[in-house]
Amino acid sequence: MLDNISKMQPGIKTKRISSYDRTGGNADFIRIAAGETADLAVIAGAGKIKHIWITVNAPDSFIRRNAVIRMYWDGEESPSVESPLGDFFGQGWGEEYNFASLPLAAAPANGRAFNCYFPMPFGDGARITLENQSGEPINSFYYYIDFEEHPSIPASEGRFHAWWNREVTGVHPDEGETEWSVIAPQSANPTTEHNYVFADIVGSGQFVGINYFVDNPGPMWYGEGDDMWLIDGEDWPGSLHGTGTEDFFNSSWCPNEVYAHPYFGYAKVPAKLGWMGRTHCYRFFLEDPIRFEQSLHASIEHGHDNSLTLDLSTVAYWYQSEPHKPFPALPPKEERGNMPEIGVVDVHKWRHAWRQAKGSSPTLWGNE
What we know:
Shape: globular
Pfam families: DUF2961 (PF11175)
CATH topology of the largest domain: Jelly Rolls
Radius of gyration: 22 Å
CATH superfamily of the largest domain: Protein of unknown function DUF2961
Number of domains: 2
CATH class of the largest domain: Mainly Beta
Number of strands: 23
Structural class: mainly beta
InterPro entries: DUF2961
Low-confidence stretches: none
Protein name: DUF2961 domain-containing protein
Strand content: 35-45%
């Protein structure tokens, strides 16, 4: 990673676009009204974005999901990056918490400083926008966009892409919601048909990372799901087939603890019963990108054989040649809200319903 830091590169100029106060004062931010889209950077010519830093102050406590960041390369009309602001930088559910990885970070105070170090090349212009889809203004939006001007960037150099997806998964198998065959024997899953899809790419490129946010309404382990990669139109089981969610994220044995490696980890875990609640997993393929020449379809089971109801949202990151396949329409903000958190009162109500189903004996324990 540091090998090129001493290499002299004549003709490359370092530049920055920021929210600094043009009058020389200290109001070093912009204001973005409700419903407004602000151009954060419009850059002509060829170059490469090297670093982005952002912090936000807004009365809307859900602004990290209600603000949308988009990036366009080389005059394209369809964005190569489209994601809620917080999710792109590794902050799920509109929440604030620290997150550390090599390409992305949410730094103190309490994860409110967003940083991105993914290089983003462009050959004929770049545009970065922020749309405030909230009903309230962003009172102060601070940012740096550090970039280089290059004499030229070849079309063969992949353009950076990122796509946010979200699904509240339905239970697929006939045996109902189960795992580890607790409720009934579980079937095999020789297909990707019912999996959660986190990348569906057409073109040539390489996949370099994912932020994976899972909200689990029950206490059962959410991570028996295998990751499945179909490269260049191949059939199941594909060139890359995983053995479980925690294995895909380079951990083991149903972890439930915060862990931060530069390439992978668990930035947030719940302190609840079992694996109930919101967990943020991440993995970046910086040493081992997943390469494709024509297409890439990447998915993961939600529980073995897609047996669990989960609220899954992801941001996938990759480089590819243009033009890219346009993303599906981003769901409106009303459809990007969180599912209600399940807590101790809900669990007690479940127990009450179970006691009634068992005849309401006064000594029912819970494992009958």
